[in-house]
Design a protein that fits this description.
The chain is mostly helical. It is built from four helices and two strands.
Length: about 120
């Protein structure tokens, strides 16, 4: 048993990668581990990505972009609400979100170039 599982965050074996962007379609660049909480009263999702991987860089840039761009953060809230209202399962909801993450990638790259963002 790994340390996260022993701490109450078992690995979700079926969730092994982020969704590749059109610019970086190689699935090997997006591998990750996903752990969830075992306490149903405290939902926690832990995404573990390889340092320097495409998924790792995307996650950090996404976080910083949302912090710097309030309109983008609100857009994300709106997308999540709309999809949550129209999908019955977590997996259907996650699959429905994937295209939006690909659509915003050029905007995130523009933000990174404009601000000099680096991981």
């Amino acid at each position: 048993m790994n340390t996260l599982a022993a701490a109450g965050f078992p690995r979700v074996e079926d969730y092994r990668m982020d969704h590749p962007t059109d610019d970086l379609p190689d699935p090997s660049l997006w591998v990750k581990r996903f752990h969830g909480s075992c306490d149903p009263e405290q939902v926690v999702h832990v995404h573990v990505r390889e340092l320097g991987s495409a998924g790792w860089q995307y996650a950090l840039l996404f976080r910083d972009w949302l912090r710097a761009e309030p309109a983008a953060a609100q857009e994300y809230v709106d997308v999540k609400r709309q999809l949550a209202d129209t999908h019955d399962s977590t997996s259907a909801y996650a699959d429905a979100k994937a295209p939006w993450f690909n659509e915003i990638w050029p905007r995130m790259q523009s933000f990174a170039q404009h601000t000099g963002w680096s991981d």
